[in-house]
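Z., the sequence and structure:
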Amino acid sequence: MFVRKIALIVVSLSTAAIAFGQVKKPSVKKTGAPVKQKIVNPAPKPAAIKKHNPDHTLLWQISGNGLTQPSYIFGTMHILCADDAKLSGPLKKVIKESKQIFFEVDMDDMQQMMGALQYARMNDGTKLSDLLTPVEHDRVKAYFDSHKSILPFSMMARFKPYFINALIAEGMMDCKAKAGMEESIMKESKLYDKEIKGFETMEFQASLFDSIPYEKQAKDLLMYVDSIDLYKKNTMDMVDLYRKQDLQLLDSMVLKSDPGMEQYMDLLLYSRNKRWASEMPEQMFQAPTLFAVGAGHLPGVNGVLKLLRDQGFTVKPSNNRD
């Protein structure tokens, strides 16, 4: 559904913001024109045959600490090609056996979903043209004139620039049909009439980006457009790691983010992880629950998996492959 896709793009704002740190800034001539960087692909290496690492999974079981039945947490990616947004047999079984499902936001609340575009707008009537020079604004417009998007550029005048970044990410995937893991989980949950809940509201998630100066967001957006090949490569690298279910390498990408983003990591990730981890026990003690949140929230010293272990829960990898 279109409104859910827009909502997922709002949810993916933090991914777009963090991903900017992985894009190397392009060289600039003295004229100020960006120099397109050439991506050199190394020669392919012979494929090595090795056993699957059980820690490479997006599905984790939570038990112990007084729980009578286990709950699970699954790392999602909000926008994927439809062929990559498929559920494994083990995850389908977890959905069937869970009593309730928690997403970052309540994906079953259509009032919230319908309001996604409203929350994507900047405050105080600020427009993108207020944040860029006419020449810079024309460069962004030219990108959308030559690339398809689910929304026309004329509708983006007041959008938070990071939301426009997320639209670019959605459009650069080389597939006709796109979906999010949340959508796939929602569809499966409808087979069993599961109760759907959310940690946050759509309004809250979008408001996080009012704390990041719009001027910085606009300059980052311009950098995306000027270095689009590198941005696409980075996005595809993240998708590849997601397919491999390698949370450790995904976390290392976050830790290498641009120094300009470090001051916002607590806002975008760490403080939210702490809040979610503190709220999860109450839900798990009430009923077996599946939590499905962005994969970047799970790993690392500030990730939800460690925060749950710190509370005394046993958190172990669970098979997520057919």
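The chain has a mean pLDDT of 86. The first helix runs from residue 2 to 11.

Let me know what you think.
H.
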